[in-house]
Specification:
Largest sheet: 5 strands, parallel
Shape: globular
Radius of gyration: 19 Å
Strand order of the largest sheet: 2-3-1-4-5
Number of strands: 5
Order of helices and strands: HHEHEHEHEHHHHEHHHH
Structural class: alpha/beta
Strand content: 5-15%
Oligomer: single chain
């Protein structure tokens, strides 16, 4: 169940506060870009969205996160996205498709942001999410496994009823040539195991890509307020959890399935980790 602070945040992120409504009618939001965010599940969807909606000219469109579960909702993507107004953010888990990228980016003029995360940490986050989210189709199967090691191996190998981690990565990796790529690890700041300097630089880079003038002080305020437990799927938001969770068997399984993809994403230089 959502807390009162989560409900208050929902009003802000969907642009339903008086200040956000005024911005859309007579303020800065009228000239802000339309934005599509693309993330692999459990790779910082809500963190990226929060970074954006902390800017007073941006708010989320009144749409669910678009992905495989509601494919019928966006079967005609141009018809769905064309009416979206300036300053609105559409959240997605879209598999890469060149026609989709061309329609959204080139034809409709959306700015596209891709959030990537170390897949080793994404697997851990996914394991906890599947077991905690009511109604998740894989919940009973994953929860019935004997321990977390078994669950991690099942998710990595695709033995839990979903894709293996290699196929999950490949669904999204080609977006890198059509979007501004943001690393989850660069957005969490010192509280999440990163650095505040990198976080600030990343925030400024996002808004520079969007073509929005953001002062240094405004960027600092957004960075400071970015980490929040006000979203329902927030757990720890820390990086490199895999170092303390994975044993040798889990590491070897990951290397066998997606070690090359980890290198391609820039999270390792070789298989010696």
């Amino acid at each position: 169940m959502k807390s009162l602070s989560q409900y208050a945040f929902d009003l802000q992120r969907f642009g339903l506060t008086p200040a956000r409504i005024a911005s859309r009618l007579v303020g800065e939001a009228r000239h802000a870009p339309r934005i599509l965010t693309v993330t692999m599940p459990k790779s910082g969807t809500n963190l990226l969205q929060r970074l954006l909606v902390l800017h007073p000219a941006l708010s989320r469109a009144l749409l669910p996160t678009l992905g495989q579960r509601n494919r019928e909702r966006w079967s005609d993507i141009e018809k769905l996205l064309a009416p979206i107004g300036p300053g609105r953010i559409v959240s997605s888990h879209f598999d890469f498709d060149p026609d989709l990228a061309a329609t959204v980016g080139d034809k409709l003029g959306y700015k596209i942001l891709l959030m990537v995360r170390d897949p080793r940490d994404a697997v851990i986050s996914d394991m906890h999410y599947i077991q905690s989210w009511p109604g998740h189709p894989l919940k009973e199967r994953v929860a019935s496994m004997k321990d977390d090691k078994t669950r991690l191996l099942a998710i990595i190998n695709g033995e839990h009823g979903g894709r293996n981690i290699r196929d999950q990565i490949l669904r999204f990796s080609d977006w890198t040539g059509h979007a501004h790529t943001v690393r989850f690890e660069d957005t969490v700041g010192a509280q999440g195991g990163g650095t505040d300097e990198t976080q600030l630089e990343t925030v400024r880079g996002i808004f520079a890509y969007l073509g929005m003038d953001v002062s240094l002080e405004q960027a600092k305020a957004i960075a400071v307020d970015a980490r929040s437990s006000k979203t329902q799927t927030f757990r720890t938001g820390r990086i490199r959890n895999w170092e303390t969770v994975y044993d040798r068997d889990v590491k070897d399984a990951f290397k066998a399935v997606a070690g090359d993809q980890l290198i391609e994403l820039g999270y390792e230089k070789d298989h010696d980790w």
